[in-house]
Amino acid sequence: MSSVVDWLRTSTPGLLVLCGIAIAVLLFVIIRIKLEPFIALLIVGLGLALAAGLPVSQIVGTAIKSGDSILETGFGGILGHIAVIIGLGTVLGAILERSGGAQALTARLLGVFGERGAPIAMGLLGLIFGIPVFFDIGIFVLAPLVYVAARQGGKSLVLYAMPMLAGLSMTHAFLPPHPGPVALGGLLEVNLGWLILMGFVCGIPGFIAAGLLWGSYIGKRVIVDVPEDFVNEADGGTTGSASKTDEQGGPHVSGGTAVTTARPRVTTPPSVGTIGAIIAVPLILILGATFGTILLDEGRLLQVLTFFGTPAVALLIAVLIAFYVLGIRRGSTVQELSTLTGESLRPVGMLLLVVGAGAFFGKVISATGIGTALADTMSAAGLPIIVLAYIISCALRIAQGSATVAIVTTGGIVGPLVAAQDYSQVAVALIAMSIAAGSIILSHVNDGGFWIIAKFFNMTVKQTLQTWTVLETVLSVVSFAVAGVLFAIIA
User: Fold this and answer.
1) Which NCBIfam families does the protein's record reference (predicted)?
2) Are residues 169 and 131 in contact, defined by beta-carbon separation less than 8 angstroms?
3) Nearest CA to 224 among 487, 439, 455?
4) CA pair distance 195, 132, nearest whole angstrom
5) Which range scores top for mean pLDDT: 201-205, 226-230, 387-391?
6) Which of 53, 83, 143, 286 is the most exposed place for a label (fewest CB within 10 A)?
7) CA 323/CA 340 separation, integer angstroms
8) What are the Cα distances from residue 356, in Å, to 39, 136, 329, 370?
9) Which of 446, 406, 490 is nearest to 197 (CA)?
10) Omega of the bond prior to 177 within 30 degrees of 0, cis?
11) Cα separation of 332 and 403, whole Å?
């Protein structure tokens, strides 16, 4: 018995077997037992650490001191990086949604593209509004606007919904301040500015292929009518209710909220320029710091760019601008804005716990030597790290349905491999994009988002598989292909 234990703990094949067992157990407790991913990741991480023979003092510390333990450094390291960013991003999205910015963007885009170009307008609406707003909230807000466009165009709802969904999915998967990319920034230690750049570079081709090309093709073949009750809601200016999705299954972990509050109908939405400027502020500041680090020598200007381009500071500035321009200047009180902030932040707690538990799981993998064993095996097989990252992320996504769990688990597994190599920030950002791309592939019945889309867009399970599932797969494969080609050139 002791020889088997020694083999598991010290040999490369044994460590890989331990890792495989741990992932299998993780999937089992999430899928079959329906345990919350946060609890599942914590249990499996602790079990893997004990099975690999790590000292208890290293895993959880002692009764007197635990600050250096894997448990606390795993959680604390990643949460210190992402908590403020995700929190501020959530608040920014909430004030933009409440202000009626989506209606303003819709009117302008439909005016530019006309009736024939309405699907493109819907795609751009999802792409732009999806930057500050989480995926499921984006659906709740934008779905009624899609209904109106489909009713006016007289064609299948699918033709208008798919481009919008592709835009929302692309931004949610590839761009900060969404939880997945922000978590990858911490797990892989890559600058968020490079993640923003590579997110656009890899995600836009995927959005075009999945949202515009595939959406146009399938929208003419899967005919879905706009449901009358939703049309009535759209005419009344509401954004639907998240309670419609409360009964849906699937271990879905989202950055958004399943709790929405009644919002008064917006009669004078802000201008498109105002919305665009507020969304652009944090992106410009973060990119300014990134390029300043590359192009400028040490000095006061670089210090200024670095300070204001720190993601937390950049998002705080955008939130304060939004509070004034979209709130106080338009008649909202500070108390109303505080209430909105509190409501928007309520669901963020579970998301942060899942990401923290995933980082702890990754820390265990690093401490046990599993990361080194994976690196050796990958090197012997001649498998590029970017391909390995994509395959692992795809497998986890397909098996358990949650993009967040797929991202944080894959990031924890791949993180030690990336750290062991001398990759540039651009190359690491491309690896992050491959993980993000894998985390959205083949959305099906174990993904809560699948059921949200089926419900809101009046589709059967078969129709949702024909449309949304294929869209996500096209977006994943094309975006990964772009990342892979660029990685081969740069790395």
Assistant:
1) gntP
2) no
3) 455
4) 15
5) 201-205
6) 53
7) 11
8) 11, 22, 38, 20
9) 490
10) yes
11) 36
pTM exceeds 0.90 for this model: no
Average pLDDT of the chain to the nearest whole number:
86
pLDDT tens for 373-398 read: 776 776 677 789 999 999 999 988 98
Q: pLDDT tens digits, residue range 156-197?
A: 999 999 999 999 999 999 999 898 999 999 899 999 999 999
- Residue (of 366, 368, 370) closest to 16 by Cα position: 370
d(CA 125, CA 483): 25
Question: 466 with 460: CB under 8 angstroms?
Answer: no
What Å distances lie between residue 153 and 115, 150, 227, CA to CA? Answer: 6, 5, 15
SS (H, E, C) the chain: CHHHHHHHHHCHHHHHHHHHHHHHHHHHHHHCCCCCHHHHHHHHHHHHHHHCCCCHHHHHCCCCCCCCCHHHHHHHHHHHHHHHHHHHHHHHHHHHHHCCHHHHHHHHHHHHHCCCCHHHHHHHHHHHHCCCCCHHHHHHHHHHHHHHHHHHHCCCHHHHHHHHHHHHHHHHHHCCCCHHHHHHHHHHCCCHHHHHHHHHHHHHHHHHHHHHHHHHHHHCCCCCCCCHHHHHHHHHCCCCCHHHHCCCCCCCCCCCCCCCCCCCCCCCCCCHHHHHHHHHHHHHHHHHHHHHHHHCCCCHHHHHHHHHHCHHHHHHHHHHHHHHHHHHHHCCCHHHHHHHHHHHHCCHHHHHHHHHHHHHHHHHHHHHCHHHHHHHHHHHHCCCHHHHHHHHHHHHHHHHCCHHHHHHHHHHHHHHHHHCCCCCHHHHHHHHHHHHHHCCCCCCCCCHHHHHHHHHCCCCHHHHHHHHHHHHHHHHHHHHHHHHHHHHHHC
The closest of 2, 3, 1, 10 to 369, measured between CA atoms, is 10
**Which structure tokens are listed for 441?**
């592939």
